[in-house]
Specification:
By secondary structure, the chain is of the alpha/beta class. The protein contains 8 helices and 6 strands. A 6-stranded parallel sheet has the order 2-1-3-4-5-6, with helices on both faces. Helix 1 crosses helix 7. It is globular, with a radius of gyration of 16 Å. The chain starts with a strand and ends with a helix. The structure holds flavin mononucleotide (FMN).
Length: about 180
Amino acid sequence: MISIIDGSPKKTSNSAYFLSLLTKNLKDDYIVHKLYHEKLDDIINNIKKADTLVIAFPLYVDAPPSKLLELMEKYPNDKNLYIICNCGFLEVKHNDIAVKIMETWSNHHLLGTFKIGAGEVLGNNHLLGKILSPFFRYKMFRFSRAINKHQSISFSSSLLLTKKMYMFFANKSFKKRLENYK
Ligand SMILES: Cc1cc2nc3c(=O)[nH]c(=O)nc-3n(C[C@H](O)[C@H](O)[C@H](O)COP(=O)(O)O)c2cc1C
């Protein structure tokens, strides 16, 4: 059994979107927990029954979010671990410190990492994401396959854009969102 954790506090999160792509191709039974919306003890009891743990989370100030840190304090990992870490910046390297933190917690059980940059674009099924990251969905498929086979895997994805262009598009989209709030 696979225990899956959406580590974002948002109800509709980018992490949840990535997990929805991932679970389409999982062969084993799985349960998805929303870390911020369920009791931590119940989640931990479910993890204990699983043989694989998948955690998708947003990057918060170069680290995993606080509730995930709480889980890590309460439960020393002993499961095969796969993580999907997504950040708002374009460059995937921003996820590196958070991945190191997870690796330390994993007790040498970290089998898979997927580092995602420009999470707000790739996580929204945005047209820009589909055009500028054409292999993203295929990589997610390969990630699911690695979980099915208990294999090691390491992927990263972002947009094929310069930082300047990313800022241009981000500003445009923020303005549009603000206008909708008026
Ligand atoms: C409190 C907070 C801190 C954040 N810190 C970072 C950061 O250090 N680096 C980064 O690239 N993005 C940062 N972000 C952006 C999120 O990682 C990004 O929006 C992500 O796609 C959210 O994923 P989610 O929808 O799964 O929660 C931060 C966002 C918030 C709300």
